[in-house]
Structures are given as structure tokens and as C-alpha cells.
Specification:
Blueprint (H helix, E strand, L loop, with lengths): L12 E3 L2 E3 L4 E2 L3 E2 L4 E3 L2 E4 L3 E4 L7 H12 L6 E3 L5 H4 L2 H7 L4 E4 L1 H11 L7 E3 L5 E3 L4 E6 L9 E5 L4 E3 L16 H13 L3 H12 L5 E3 L10 H12 L5 E8 L5 H15 L5 E5 L5 H10 E11 L2 E2 L1 H12 L3 E10 L6 H10 L2 E5 L4 E3 L5 H16 L1
Parallel strand pairs: 7-8, 8-9, 9-10, 14-15, 16-17, 16-18, 18-20, 20-21, 20-22
Antiparallel strand pairs: 1-6, 2-5, 3-4, 6-7, 11-12, 12-13, 13-14, 18-19
Helix pairs in contact: 5-9, 6-7, 8-12
The chain binds MU-OXO-diiron (FEO).
């Protein structure tokens, strides 16, 4: 999925970003086996504008891309929509190479520039206010603040002639642009992981976007979105309102010797036999944690299963449930299965963690295994499957 160098038919918007295949963990925590792109765009008009920079490790390659896109011209403006270092890390390199360029950003972003770089570019800056406009010639940029999508200083930019939204982190995805894959799964993992906590601010941004005629979306990660934009807007509306995308279940388990896994597998089998819908089994120790979190947001039902450890649930299960609650997990049906050879306690702890989330209903029975499943446990699991199907 390669982004065309020329994005507008007239060639006046050019891609200047880079692919990062060197990175192992995005933000030091999210696995990105197919890399990530840091997008940057160049607008050529009577005035020229560069939209955002890239991670500082790629400053040289990006500056070459910018120079090529500028086609012999100098940049008049650098528009900084977001100060997270994956986009702001090359601002200083740009500012040094192009001392005549004006830096355009929000007041809050200039404060962050001072923190990151020791300068807020007081002698060469333009503060973008909500609804503020910057005419470039045939094109005009309009700025809209988007606080907490995904940092407080963020703004997005709408180009009025070509009806293009430069959406900052919104509508981005993991995966470099030279890696072909469907948008949805990696966009969901990216959104839920990174922006998931900020549903209300995303809803505010979507309301602003609804007032604009948007024909193209240029995010800071992932491909430019040119067609079927309703699909992306609808998914963002679902994700940011914490509604499930579809009926289905995630069974997330920890298992030290396979007994708890066997219970999870039996429940999956029972649900599948009953034609419940998609059922996803995830090992919280072995599977990608961010994918498990994203799947929990994708589906309507969540079952957690864990052995007892130090009088509590397994540590990675605790981390998983904390990752859900930290992102505002809500509006779901849940169930609990635990295991304990002498004093099963995980069920109580998992139930309390789920019930601390808004509008999460934990259905009965709580299945409690003593070491290995017995016939009573198997019957309880069948009853739990029936209860989940009813809920
Ligand atoms: Fe892609 Fe919040 O930075």
C-alpha cells in the first residue's frame, strides 16, 4: 500500500514522509512487526507549506524528501500539528536548514517546543487559533484544535480547495507504507492502544469534521484515505463511543500448566457449537497484549480466565485488565473463570476489576476450578456458555 508521491491530481500536494522498519516497539511498548510510517506532506502554491516533520532518527532522509518535493523552492511554512517526538523530532533540523520558514502551530505546542528544544521560535512563529486560516494562494489552510487526540496541543488542518483533512494522529495505523495490509485491524490496534482513553475528545473532533466536506484524509501514520471515507468515520465513531463493532467473544486466559487453558478452550468450543459468532482465544502471556486489548474493544463479550497467583489473579491478567480500564473499557458483557489448587482467589479479583468498568455486566456462574476441570466444572462451563449467549 504505497502512498502516491502526488496526492492531489494537480500535483500540488506531495508525500514527503518516511517508513521506519528499524523500530521494534512504537512508543517503546507496541510491537510493530511491519514498521510504521511517519507522514509528512508538502503543499506547493504561491506559498509553500510543509505539514509536520518525522522522528529525529530519519531527519536526513526526510529533509531529502522535502527538498525533492519542493522542486527547487524554499518552504514558507512548517505546520506542526502534534508535538509527540515521532512527528516533532526533526523540527530543529528543519528550522536550521530553512531559517526563513515560519513555524505554525498552537500556543500549547510552542510551549512544548520550548520544553523539547529550548526555543519556542518567538521570532519566526505564527500561532494557529481555532478556525484560523492561512491562505497559500489557490489553497487555504484552516486550523482546528483537537486536544487529546492524542496530546493536548494537537490541531488538525483542513485544506478548503481540495477538501483535504490533515488529521494528525487520527485515522492513522501501524505498518509502514511499503507493507500491504487491510487498514482496519492495525488502525484499531493503534487507535485503541494509543488514543482509546480519549473517546470524548475524539467525538468532539468528529463533530467538527462532520461540518466539513472531506474528500481525502491525510493522517500522520498509514495511508492517505481517498475513498469510502464513511467506513473510517463510522469506525472512529464506534471506537470513540466505546460500542462493540460486532457480536463476538474474546476469551483471554493465563495458564501455568494448561488446565485453565483447557477450560478456556472448552468454553470457546461451546460458544462456537452454539453459533455464537467469532470467538477469539488469547493467551495474555504469549499473545500481543495490544491486539488482545483491541479485540476486547472490537467484540461485545469478554471472558477472562486465570489461575490464582500470590492470592490474586496472574500478574499479566492484572496488567491486561488495567490496560482495558485505563482506556475506558465499558458497555460490554463479561464472565470470569478462575483456578486455584488450595485457595482460588483470581475470580474475585477479576470480577472486581471488571465491575469497576462502566456498564460491564459480569454474568454468572463464575466458574472456579480446583487444579483441573472436573465434571461439575464442565457443566458450569456449558451453563456459562448458555448465559453468555442469552446476555
Ligand atoms: Fe503519532 Fe501521538 O504521535
Amino acid at each position: 500500500m504505497k502512498t502516491d508521491c502526488a496526492i492531489w491530481a494537480n500535483g500540488e500536494l506531495r508525500y514527503a514522509g518516511v517508513n521506519d522498519h528499524e523500530i521494534d516497539l512504537f512508543e517503546g511498548q507496541y510491537a510493530v512487526p511491519h514498521g510504521v510510517s511517519y507522514n509528512s506532506y508538502v503543499i506547493l502554491d504561491e506559498k509553500t507549506a510543509v505539514m509536520d516533520t518525522v522522528d529525529g532518527r530519519f531527519a536526513d532522509a526526510w529533509l531529502r524528501n522535502v527538498e525533492k518535493a519542493l522542486d527547487g523552492r524554499k518552504p514558507d511554512y512548517l505546520i506542526v500539528q502534534h508535538m509527540e517526538p515521532d512527528h516533532s523530532g526533526s523540527i530543529m533540523a528543519f528550522a536550521e536548514k530553512y531559517p526563513g520558514a515560519v513555524i505554525v502551530s498552537t500556543q500549547k505546542a510552542f510551549g512544548m517546543m520550548n520544553q523539547f528544544f529550548g526555543t519556542d521560535f518567538a521570532d519566526r512563529r505564527m500561532v494557529a487559533a481555532e478556525g484560523g486560516k492561512l491562505p497559500l494562494g489557490r489553497h487555504t489552510l484552516a486550523f482546528y484544535t483537537a486536544p487529546m487526540v492524542h496530546w493536548p496541543e494537537v490541531m488538525v488542518t483542513y485544506e478548503e480547495t481540495e477538501k483535504t483533512l490533515f488529521s494528525a494522529d487520527a485515522f492513522g495505523k501501524f505498518g509502514a507504507l511499503d507493507w500491504a495490509e487491510d487498514w482496519t485491524d492495525e488502525a484499531r490496534r493503534y487507535y485503541i492502544g494509543i488514543v482509546g482513553k480519549y473517546g470524548a475528545p475524539v467525538q468532539t473532533l468528529l463533530k467538527k469534521a462532520a461540518g466539513l466536506d472531506i474528500q481525502k484524509i491525510c493522517p500522520l501514520h498509514g495511508p492517505v484515505l481517498k475513498e469510502n471515507l464513511e467506513k473510517y468515520l463510522k469506525l472512529y465513531s464506534i471506537w470513540s463511543s466505546y460500542q462493540p463493532e460486532e457480536k463476538g467473544a474474546v476469551i483471554a486466559y493465563a495458564s501455568f500448566y494448561g488446565h485453565t487453558r483447557a477450560a478456556a478452550e472448552l468454553l470457546a468450543e461451546e460458544l462456537q457449537k452454539a453459533g455464537f459468532g467469532p470467538v477469539v482465544l488469547r493467551d495474555v502471556y504469549r499473545d500481543d497484549w495490544a491486539a488482545t486489548v483491541a479485540d476486547a474493544f472490537r467484540y461485545s463479550h469478554l471472558v477472562v480466565a486465570s489461575p490464582t497467583y500470590n492470592g490474586d489473579m496472574a500478574p499479566k491478567m492484572e496488567a491486561f485488565l488495567k490496560a482495558l480500564s485505563a482506556r475506558g473499557y465499558q458497555n460490554r458483557v463479561a464472565a470470569v473463570m478462575d483456578n486455584g489448587t488450595w485457595a482460588p482467589m483470581a475470580g474475585k479479583a477479576m470480577k472486581a476489576a471488571l465491575e469497576s468498568c462502566r456498564n460491564v455486566t459480569v454474568v454468572e456462574p463464575v466458574v472456579s476450578i480446583r487444579s483441573a476441570m472436573n465434571d461439575e466444572n464442565k457443566a458450569q462451563i456449558c451453563a456459562l456458555a448458555a448465559a453468555l449467549i442469552q446476555a
